[in-house]
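User: Fold this; tokens only.

Assistant: Input:
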Amino acid sequence: MKIFFILIIFIIFLIFIIVRDYQIKKKKLKLNNALNSNFFIQKINKLIDENKYNLLEERIRLREIDAYGNEDYKKWIGNPTS
């Protein structure tokens, strides 16, 4: 009977260790994913900042202005703001 209780306590202890390790790995993975996504967002923002003037010049080059001053952006792919 005494061995049975010791065995149950040992099994509960092992389950506790396994669950704790799983939670630690899950937290570490979640933090790693957050850091990777933040790095990706910063990289995209950097690329946009580096190329925004080139894109503006390209949009200006592709627009057509008629005699009344109306601008036509049919050659420009996307939705220009101004």
